[in-house]
Amino acid sequence: MGSRKGQETWDSICKFYPLGSILVxxxxxxxxxxxxxxxxxxxAEPSGREFHYLLDGQQRxxxxxxxxxxxxxxxxxxxxxxxxxxxxxxxxxxxxxxxWRSRFLFRDEIDDRGGxxxxxxxxxxxxxxxxxxxxxxxxxxYESVEGRIAREGHSDYDDPARIQLRRVKQVFQ
Length: 173
Prior knowledge:
- The structure is a single chain.
- This protein is an alpha+beta fold and 173 residues long.
- The chain is built from 7 helices and 7 strands.
- It has helices at 3-14, 58-69, 100-103, 121-128, 135-140, 142-151, 160-172; strands at residues 23-27, 36-37, 40-41, 51-56, 84-86, 104-105, 132-134.
- A hairpin with a 2-residue loop joins strand 2 (36-37) and strand 3 (40-41).
- Helix 6 (142-151) runs antiparallel to helix 7.
């Protein structure tokens, strides 16, 4: 799954569109299998007699897990797969909307390399001000992310950036 596909997938998830199937087979039969997805180790197998195998949805699962927790994507080993969300952009409900290209970003689409990459200067400022957030931080450190946004001048509960933050948080719930 290409990086743009991962961004489109997250946009669909945040709009609560159907994601497609992820099929897991539960069985008492132990098979030879990989214990990682996207370079991320899977939890140890349960000590009981039931095993779980991913039969369908491996690309989606890999894209989702690596965009949140990092890892490796085959053919893109040098690229950081963590995905960030720009909370200054509101989510449009139109199906053909392509604002995901600016809303969901990789670190290399934010880093302005000390002001030398002009197309990223505004994004770098939003990142420094806590308005472009790593998805992992929203999933695991929501309260601190929200607190920082409030301290950075977005203290109103109905502030658009805080509304977008809550919308992304809903995805993880």
